[in-house]
Design goal:
Helix 3 runs parallel beside helix 4 and helix 4 packs parallel to helix 5. It is built from seven helices and seven strands. It has a single domain, classed as 3-Layer(aba) Sandwich (Rossmann fold). The protein is an alpha/beta fold. It is about 45% helix and about 15% strand.
Amino acid sequence: MDMSPVVLVTGAARRVGAATVRELHAAGWKVVIHAHRSFEEAWALAMTLNQLRPDSAQALQADLHDVAALEQLAGNAYACWGRLDALVNNASTWYPTPVGQLTAEAFEDLVGSNLRAPLFLTQACAARMEQGAVVNIIDAQRPQRGYSAYAAAKAGLHAITEALALELAPRIRVNGVAPGHMIWPAGNPLNDLQQRAELARVPMARIGGGEEIARAVKFLLSPEAAYVTGAVLPVDGGIRLS
C-alpha cells in the first residue's frame, strides 16, 4: 500500500511554487498543484511528474479570492489520494500601492490573496489532516516604499503563522519561509536601475533561486523539523539586515 505523504501547494504552476513541487516530488511526496489562471502550466507540470512516478501528481484549479472555493479546493486535494499531510501557502499577488493611489479594490485584492486565502485554506485543510504541517511563504521582514497594502497583508500572514502554530499544536505544525529578492516576476514594476539598487542591499550579492526556497520548505515539512513550529525562516541573502 502506497503511504506517500500528500502536499497541496498553491500558486504552483511556475516560479517558486513549481520549484517547491519538484523538490517535494523528488523527495517522495505526492503533490497537488494548485493554479488559477496558469492551470494549463500546472497540468503540464503534473503530467511531467507523473511520467517520472505514476499517479504522484494532480493539478487543481481554484480562485483563492473565493472563500467558498477554498473549502472545495481542500476537499478535492484530500480526495486525490484519500489523505492530506501538508499545505504550502505559496500563492501571492504583488504590486505597488503608493499612498494617494491605493484603492479599496487593490487593498482587498492584496489582502485576499496574501492573508485571507492562506488563513481560510489552512482552516479547511487542517480539518482533513490527522497530523501534518503547514508552511506559509511570507516575505522579507522590512516593508518597501510604495507597497503598504502588500506589507500589511504579509505582516498579517506572519502573525497568523504564529497564532495557528499555537492553535493547531501539537497535531499540526505551522511555520513560514520569508524570501528576499527571488526571480523577478513577469511585469516586474522595478526598472533596471531600481533592480540594481535593490540587489546592492543584499549581502549575498545576488538574487535568490526558487530551489533555495523549495529546500527550506522541504526541511520545515520533514521529520527533521518535528520540534519546529511558529518559526519564520528567512531565506533572503541577508537583506533583512541591510
